Amino acid sequence: MNRQTHWEKIYGEKAPDAVSWYRPHLETSLALIERAVSGCSASIIDVGGGESTLVDDLLARGYQNITVLDISQTAIAASRKRLGEVSERVHWIVADVTRAPLEPSAYDVWHDRAVFHFLTATSDRAAYVRQVAQAVKPGGHVIVSTFGPEGPTKCSGLEVVRYDAESLHREFGVHFRLLGSSKEQHRTPFGTIQQFIYCCCKIE
Predict the structure, then answer these.
(1) CATH number for the domain including 19?
(2) 3-state secondary structure the chain
(3) Which residues are 44's β-sheet partners?
(4) What is the Cα–Cα distance from 54 to 71, expressed in whole angstroms?
(5) Cα dist from 168 to 5, 116, 164, 186, whole Å
(6) Rounded to 5 degrees, what angle do the CA atoms 116, 122, 123 make?
(7) What is the CA radius of gyration of the chain?
(8) Residue 177 sits in which domain range?
(9) What is the reported pLDDT for 2?
(10) Are the C-beta atoms of residues 7 and 75 closer than 8 Å to each other?
(11) What total number of domains does the chain contain?
(12) Pick from 53, 20, 25: which is nearest to 190 by CA?
């Protein structure tokens, strides 16, 4: 089963609030995004946005230039239906982030919560980093969240790579200046705890 087929199956079978990474609101992500940008005209891409409510909260705060990318058409369709007419104000991309045709220097902020840790192949991680370097404007911010050192070793039937701040930053390299990192104890809809690490970098 390829990557896209796997995620179409997951989103087709499970309700939005029945996946382990679900949160009603991504408070940490919102705070980091608001700290990174100076106004509501900033161009923001949410990678692996799926059925996340981050787009809802960004729209509610007045952000005008939002892109949501996900490998699953099912997940994107669910978010568009949830938002209704407001969804027309969002740019939606259905694609694998490692191969998506992204415009160069298009984004002020790149946000990813829970995609990068699924990239277990070195070649996929390198392709992802190339996409970030190409798509984010010089001086732009990159916010990536993965499972931390004490997080799960598998998720949705797939192996993952766990990171601390240093090892995650090392994947991106010296052109990404680490501004800060934090840990979050995420309570899943099933009552279990998952450790996430957040890193915020600036492209030099």
Answers:
(1) 3.40.50.150
(2) CCHHHHHHHHHHHCCHHHCCCCCCCCHHHHHHHHHHCCCCCCEEEEECCCCCCHHHHHHHCCCCEEEEEECCHHHHHHHHHHHHHHHHHEEEEECCCCCCCCCCCCEEEEEEECCHHHCCCHHHHHHHHHHHHHHEEEEEEEEEEEECCCCCCEECCEECCCCCHHHHHHHHCCCEEEEEEEEEEEECCCCCEEEEEEEEEEEC
(3) 66, 109
(4) 17
(5) 27, 9, 6, 19
(6) 95
(7) 16
(8) 3-203
(9) 87
(10) yes
(11) 1
(12) 20
pTM to 2 decimals?
Answer: 0.96
Write down the residue that tokens 């957040």 correspond to. 198
Q: Token match 């099933």: residue? A: 190
CA distances from 162 to 98, 103, 116, 150, 153 (A): 19, 29, 10, 8, 7
Q: What is the residue-level pLDDT of the chain in tens, covering all 204 positions?
A: 689 899 999 899 888 888 888 899 999 999 999 999 989 999 999 999 999 999 999 999 999 999 999 999 999 999 999 999 999 999 999 999 999 999 999 999 999 999 999 999 999 999 999 999 999 999 999 999 999 999 999 999 999 999 999 999 999 999 999 999 999 999 999 899 999 999 999 998
